[in-house]
## 1
Amino acid sequence: MAILRFFAGVLESLDQDQAKGFLVHVLNPIHRITDESGDLSAAQGESIGKPLSMPLPKCHPWDIADIPDDLRQLGVEVRDFVQTKVGVTDFSRVWENLRRHTTEKREDRRQAKNQLVRSH
């Protein structure tokens, strides 16, 4: 969560043209966090919310199940801030490129996995 706050703080101090230069770097982790069909949502469904084999130490005041929702909410807030800062057109161009790249990577992994299964 700290990195998202850091990104928002840095972008806030930059003008619009400067912020556009960092857009892909800022939006990449936000896309991974907020992507409903992505790696983090799959990890959340598999591990978060299920009982653990051993109890977690009581070192944090929050419930472990609340962390992904808080992180996703902060990701959405920072995403909206970035869109407002750089403008809809530039934001949409970079966001779509990230989405397309992510989809292609997933498809490549899926094909490699299927190829591996077929070869064995």
## 2
Amino acid sequence: MTSMISQALWIYFYITLIGLIAVSVYGIVVRPNLLKKIIALSILGDTANTFIIFLGFRRGGAAVPIFPSIKPTLEELLWFKETAVDPLPQCLVITAIVINMSVTAFLIALAIQLYRLYGTLDVRKAVRLRG
């Protein structure tokens, strides 16, 4: 019973992530307001990071990726292979979070400059005002 509930929760998590990706892509493509595009892009990046974390997660008794002894036996290596969590997705997500924050700060600076020059954050109006 608990594995069935667990499986249903994982399916719900993935469906929620797909829904968030769809909403953020809609916000990036359809919305003319630059601030809304920046928010949608930030949501897309956070959703992608969450998806990577879900892919790197191991259900069950997950062990820390540290060997229990200096010279492990074959049984310890096999146990480690079956239970250890891969740290690479976590490292990639930390790097992606830093990159996402810097890109968001840069886009906000561009939006502020666009508002100073053209008096609007609407991309369609700014293109018309430019010529």
